[in-house]
Every structure is written in C-alpha cells, then in structure tokens.
Amino acid sequence: MNDTVIKVRGYHLDLYGHVNNARYLEFLEEARWAMIEEKIDLGELKKRGIGMVVVNINIDYRLPAGLGDSLSITSRICRIGTKSATVEQIIMRDGTGTMIASAKVTFVVIDIKTQNVLRIDESLRQLLELFS
After folding, report:
1. Each residue of 66-117: pLDDT tens digit?
2. For 46-52, which contacts have Cβ atoms below 8 Å and span 24 or more sequence positions?
3. Catalytic: 3?
4. What residue segments make up the domains of the chain, in order of their start?
C-alpha cells in the first residue's frame, strides 16, 4: 500500500471551480507511479522486456475537490490474476477522512517487443504482492 499527496492547483479546475474529471486520471496515475517506483526497479523490468499497461479504469466520483485542497491517494493491488491485476485507489481530502473518489485500475503485463500479453509468473506475482 502506498499514499501519495497532491495539492489541487488552479490549472486542475474546470469552469465550475472544482477538479475536472479528467484530472483525476492524472492524479491516479501519479499515485500509481509513486507506488511502483517505491518497490520496483523499472529498469530491470525493461531489461527483461516486461511492461505494464492499463486496460480498464473505473472511477466513482463522490464529492468535488477545489483549489488548495490537499488530496491523499491510497493505492494498493487488490487482485492478481493469471494475466492481469487490479489496483484499488482511494482519494481522500487529506486530514479530514472525506472520500472524494475511488477507482479500480486493471492492468496487464506485456512483452515490450511483441506487445503480447504475458502470464503473470511466480516471480512477478511475488513482486506485485508487495503492493497488497
């Protein structure tokens, strides 16, 4: 599990003064990168010819976030299958316990050269389980 904090800036807002729905995709991606970089040597995966590609994102928006809000994003892998895994992410208004949004992001592991989906072998499964 990993927590990432993002401060809402003016350029994140839409004409209604709250965070635009598309920006949440960027916030979630930033948090996933932070989670991955904490425990995985991406250079080593690249040498092995392995990549991880998002294939599905579902976001439930609950409350708007606005200028100056500090958002805490918790990310953890909640499911590991044979060819895909799912990351659960929760966006909270930092320090208040107020949920802003939640998401489930499914990714597959691919062979970088062929772009074919790979089975998640035991070594990769153990690596992914570090994020449960």
Report:
1. 999 999 999 999 999 999 999 999 999 998 989 999 999 999 999 999 999 9
2. 46/112, 49/111, 49/112, 49/113, 50/109, 50/110, 50/111, 50/112, 50/118, 50/124, 51/109, 51/110, 51/111, 51/112, 52/107, 52/108, 52/109, 52/110
3. no
4. 2-129
- Per-position DSSP letters for 82-113, written without gaps between them: SSEEEEEEEEEETTTTEEEEEEEEEEEEEETT
pTM, full prediction: 0.91
73's tokens: 């994003």
Residue 128's φ and ψ, nearest 5 degrees, are -65, -30
User: Active-site residue among 3, 14, 60, 111?
Assistant: 14
**Which tokens in the block code for residue 55?**
């294939």
The answer to whether the beta carbons of residues 73 and 3 sit under 8 Å apart is: yes
Secondary-structure class of domain 2-129 per CATH: alpha beta
Q: Which two tokens stand for residue 54?
A: 């998002």
Please tell me what DSSP assigns to residue 14. Answer: -
